[in-house]
Design brief:
Helix 1 runs antiparallel to helix 5, helix 4 packs antiparallel against helix 5 and helix 5 runs antiparallel to helix 6. This protein starts with a helix and ends with a helix. By secondary structure, it is mainly alpha-helical. The chain is built from 6 helices and no strands. The chain is globular and about 45 Å long. Helix content is 76%, strand content 0%. Belongs to the PMEI family. Keywords: Signal. GO terms for molecular function: enzyme inhibitor activity.
Length: 157
């Protein structure tokens, strides 16, 4: 079940990228976003898709670093350790996404952002396997939504 959820989220993110290939007026970058209020708060008036994409990736780096720090402070536990490992994977993917985007490799950027969604989802799946609530659920959900928004905006450039 855990793998199915991860697969579903990666599939959703990939589908979003493929279906978002339409031309959008620069002033309306959030028009096709699934999470419009989040998109608007992330972009705060940014109209350039390239600037917006980099801002979202940098925001995700900050969010992921914060979530990793929080997981470390919550104590020693195998489930939390799994989340920390997944946050490390996400940070690596985010750095690769930023490099790819700056190098105009949008496909690799999308793959790396999708990998982040899978990393956040895997953290949640670790707790779900034990029927336990995740202390990181709010953070993981927001990061998944932010990454999905990044996938959309990156496609607009």
């Amino acid at each position: 079940m855990a793998n199915m959820r991860s697969f579903s989220l990666v599939f959703l993110a990939t589908a979003t990228v493929l279906l978002a290939g339409q031309v959008v007026v620069a002033s309306d970058l959030c028009a096709g976003a699934d999470y419009k209020p989040l998109c608007k708060s992330l972009l705060k008036g940014i109209n350039n898709p390239a600037v917006a994409t980099e801002a979202i990736i940098n925001n995700l780096i900050r969010q992921t670093t914060h979530a990793k720090s929080l997981a470390s402070r919550l104590g020693k536990d195998q489930k939390l350790d799994a989340c920390i490992d997944n946050y490390d994977l996400a940070l690596d993917s985010l750095n690769k996404a930023l490099i790819a985007y700056k190098g105009n490799d949008k496909e690799k950027c999308a793959i790396m952002l999708s990998a982040c969604i899978a990393s956040y989802s895997t953290c949640e799946d670790t707790f779900a396997e034990f029927d336990l609530p995740s202390p990181l659920e709010k953070d993981d959900s927001r990061m998944e939504q932010t990454a999905a928004t990044g996938l959309l905006v990156a496609k607009l450039d």
